[in-house]
Design brief:
The chain is α/β, with parallel strands linked by helices. The protein has 24 helices and 14 strands. The strands form 3 sheets. The protein has a 7-stranded mixed beta sheet with strand order 8-7-6-9-10-11-14, sandwiched between helices. Bound molecules: nicotinamide-adenine-dinucleotide.
């Protein structure tokens, strides 16, 4: 039986323990051994039959939020079956447990709340965080933590943001086979400035405005120290922090503990992988391209930084590499003469006259690639797409914002607006588009291609740091999984249903980097793939 970590409970307690429950699939032998006689109907189902029954019921539900709730309820009953359902039906289930449905689930979190999952640590718990973390019944090896201030493109959702760490950790298991028993989702509740939530009787968080400044920093510091004390080897993934905290916290902790910021670094890695695929189609290199970002936040500057790191790794001068990346934020083109620019934008504040809007910036800079990460739905207008098509034979158009309502353009708009010539990737799922008799299959630049394999590799080798080189290696590995057939149909990523295989390869590449850089705490085995596979959880009974 799986998982092996805990002694098995007995009788009803076993049926109510989601980590060990198999429901009607318990065998005759198990029913005798664990005191289950009479507590289950007599017929023994296979896991396949249980899965078919669940899927039939799931598909009868019309509303994605109801399907989200049904999947959560399944997980509360039987984790192995939940993950079997997810792993065997990734394309269908992933949009239900993660974006786009998870955005809606976070907005409605208090209204659909049934059972807690993970841990809530509030600012009122200051001084007791280590003690509270000890309430967690198992050893955590991966924590995904949010403070709920910038949930997807939806803004401050306070403690409702818990849907994100829970969803991300589900993807660790679904996409890479990380054992759910070692995953711990955490929400830090420091208040919310969202008036709607503060006035919502079903809101699950503290009724207070956000704590800021030294009080906030001290709380984060206490959390980090406590997490390291209670779970010494844990990897801490920061998720959906607002960018005024995200960059600072990453800089503060990245060289001190094993941590990374998913929104900045995994996004960068997945976007770079998509760009490498696009370059393969075009027959160009990064240095031949000019990238214009809509957005200058975590995703945009994270991607730009990794593009620069990739060029520098190929021997290109850092200043030249930076000159290839331009940002447009809510005030217009980021230029040198602008005052009070945030630290992370400075490397991309080049000499140029001020330009107020994206289309004018596009016309002035003539980019070969536009990358939308501003969460401004519809920002890639027909005029923007037309201009890209006029400037480029194969314009690179990445509309990475999500959820779907925040997408800069749909796949259909991207292809229709560029006579089907766009090399397109998206942040939300879009159906194939037939244009001029050719069917193009857009694929998601979803960071779930990256972080699960990265985490698996880091766990497998006992990484003590998460480095930039690991994100570069992950991007190269992901891009290498894109076949000629994928490229021929306009897909810049492999199908999501391949993620287990892709993640295993990324895990090997990441472990390889860790051993090379001397940040692996385990000794290097002969066969890295075997090392990684030893850590893979199998949801089959
Ligand atoms: P962020 O808050 O750090 O940055 C948003 C940026 O957009 C800011 O620089 C802001 O100035 C800019 N902006 C806002 N309004 C604008 C406007 N009207 N014109 C130009 N710029 C404007 O957020 P982030 O983490 O960078 O995420 C941005 C979006 O990217 C979100 O929708 C997020 O869900 C999405 N994202 C997608 C993926 C993926 O895997 N596809 C990964 C990470 C982020």
């Amino acid at each position: 039986m799986k998982p092996k970590h805990d002694p098995l409970p007995h009788g009803l307690a076993l049926l109510y323990d989601p980590l060990h429950n198999k429901g009607t699939a318990f065998s005759e032998v198990e029913r005798d051994a664990y005191g289950l006689r009479g507590l289950l109907p007599p017929h023994i189902h296979t896991q396949e039959e249980q899965m078919a029954r669940f899927l039939q019921n799931l598909r009868n539900l019309a509303d994605p939020l109801e399907q989200f709730v049904a999947l959560n309820a399944l997980r509360d009953r039987n984790e192995a079956l939940f993950f079997r359902v997810v792993c065997d039906n990734v394309d269908e289930i992933m949009p239900l447990i993660y974006t786009p449905t998870v955005g809606l689930a976070c907005q409605r979190f208090g209204h659909i709340f049934q059972r807690p999952r993970g841990m809530f640590l509030s600012i009122n718990d200051r001084g007791h965080i280590a003690e509270i973390l000890r309430n967690w019944p198992r050893k955590a090896e991966i924590i995904v933590v949010t403070d709920g201030e910038r949930i997807l493109g939806l803004g401050d959702l306070g403690a409702n943001g818990m849907g994100i760490p829970v969803g991300k950790l589900s993807l660790y298991t679904a996409c890479a086979g990380v054992d759910p028993a070692i995953c711990l989702p955490i929400t830090l509740d420091v208040g919310t400035n969202n008036e709607t939530l503060l006035n919502d009787p079903y809101y699950v968080g503290l009724r207070r405005r956000r704590v800021t400044g030294a009080e906030y920093d001290d709380f984060i510091d206490e959390f980090i120290q406590a997490a390291r004390e209670v779970f010494p080897d844990v990897i801490i993934q920061f998720e959906d922090f607002a960018n005024h905290n995200a960059f600072r916290l990453l800089e503060k902790y990245r060289d001190r503990i094993c941590t990374f910021n998913d929104d900045i670094q995994s996004t960068a890695s997945v976007a770079l992988a998509g760009l490498l695929s696009a370059l393969k189609v075009k027959g160009t290199t990064l240095a031949d391209e000019t990238f214009l970002f809509l957005g200058a936040g975590e995703a945009a500057t994270g991607i730009a930084d990794l593009i620069v790191a990739a060029m520098v790794a190929k021997g290109i001068d850092p200043a030249l590499a930076r000159s290839r990346c331009w940002l447009v934020d809510s005030k217009g083109l980021v230029v040198k003469s602008r005052e009070g620019l945030a630290h992370q934008k400075l490397p991309y504040a080049h000499d140029h006259a001020p330009v107020g809007d994206f289309l004018s910036a596009l016309k002035a800079l003539k980019p070969t690639a536009i990358i939308g990460v501003a969460a401004v739905g519809g920002a890639f207008t027909p005029d923007v797409l037309r201009a890209m098509a006029d400037l480029n034979r194969q314009p690179i158009v990445f509309a990475l914002s999500n959820p779907t309502s925040k997408s800069e353009c749909t796949a259909e708009q991207a292809y229709a607006g560029t006579d089907g010539r766009a090399l397109f990737a998206c942040g939300s799922p879009f159906a194939p588009v037939t244009i001029n008799g050719t069917t193009l299959v857009p694929r998601q630049g979803n960071n779930s291609y990256i972080f699960p394999g990265l985490g698996l590799g880091a766990i497998a080798c006992g990484a003590t740091r998460i480095t930039t080189e690991m994100f570069l290696a992950a991007a190269d590995t992901l891009a290498a999984q894109v076949t000629e057939a994928d490229l021929a149909q306009g897909s810049l990523y492999p199908p999501l249903s391949n993620t287990r295989d892709v993640s295993a390869r990324i895990a090997v590449a990441v472990a390889e980097v860790a051993f090379r850089q001397g940040v692996a705490s385990k000794s290097r085995p002969e066969n890295l793939l075997s090392l990684v596979q030893e850590h893979v959880y199998d949801p089959c009974y």
